[in-house]
Amino acid sequence: MKKRVLYSDLQEPEGPVCLPDGKIYVVEMSSTRNCVSRIDTYGRYQQVGHPGWRPNGMAIDGDGNLWIAGAGVKKLVRMRPDGVILNTYEGPEGRPYLWPNDLVFGQNGLLYMTDSGIDPDKFFEGQTIRADFRDCEYDGRVFEIDPSNGRVLRVIDSGLSFPNGIAFDANDVLYVGETLTGNIYRYDLISSASIEAKLFGNVVIGLPNDCVGPDGMAFGDDGQLYCAVFGQGDVSVLDCDGRIVERIPTCGIRPTNIAFCEDRTGGAVVTVLDLGCLEWLDLPCRGRGLYRPKLK
Questions:
Q1: Closest to 166 (Cα-Cα) out of 236, 75, 257
Q2: Residue limits of the SMP-30/Gluconolactonase/LRE-like region domain (predicted)?
Q3: What phi and psi values does residue 211 have, to the nearest 5 degrees?
Q4: What is d(CA 88, CA 121) in angstroms, rounded to the nearest whole number?
Q5: What confidence tens digit (pLDDT) does each residue in 10-39 have?
Q6: CA distance linking residue 3 with residue 268, whole number of Å
Q7: Which CATH class is domain 3-281?
Q8: Separation between Cα atoms, residue 182 and residue 162, nearest integer Å
Q9: H or E stretch including 125?
């Protein structure tokens, strides 16, 4: 498989968003940047906005505005592509967001977001994950949000151990990765009488002592789920039955997210935290089309 590094001077990158013209947005979670950046087809880099401390996952709507899971500021942030902040939302009254992590739009025009269920200040010691991270208390949640006003419509699930990546398949079934267990769950939001988490698969090899587990993920148009596995140094590929069919090594050990390219070149990009880079993978499929509702 062909691979190459598209850009290598990023600081703790996450949340890639690809545009049809080949441009790519990423967030940089480092305390020295805390920004959204854009990389064009020539590899030119530009910081476009600062949504607050430790921005995390990102999605784009049909108006071209960016939706950012603001982990450090504990808010959902809506930003214009020129960096102007349009709105910020703090979550349900009395039970605000703790760690907004990743997000995706559904076919119904609603926004779905994971919250890892712990204050980042309690998960990190400086820039390092605390050694006793498995002993921390987590109340990870999955939210359904009305993007027209930022109001949480319902909590899809709660009590999870660091929910992270989130994606819809071609049948509009929602998938969520749980980093600390390695599990990926599926939620039938349409045909099920009651929404229950059903185990889809697990991406972790063995019983690692370090923080290893599913991070960002995306579906290909081949029906397979491509999941960046943080701490394991690969993109694990799961078929429609949740079986691992391939593990694609990444250039670093801490890939944080994956997004399919939308221009004619195809392939996918992976943000790699430990090397501070954006890596391109020549995958054999295109990405499943993402929902991008117009909100104006």
A1: 257
A2: 22-93, 97-264
A3: -75, 105
A4: 21
A5: 999 999 999 999 999 999 999 899 999 999
A6: 10
A7: mainly beta
A8: 10
A9: strand 124-125
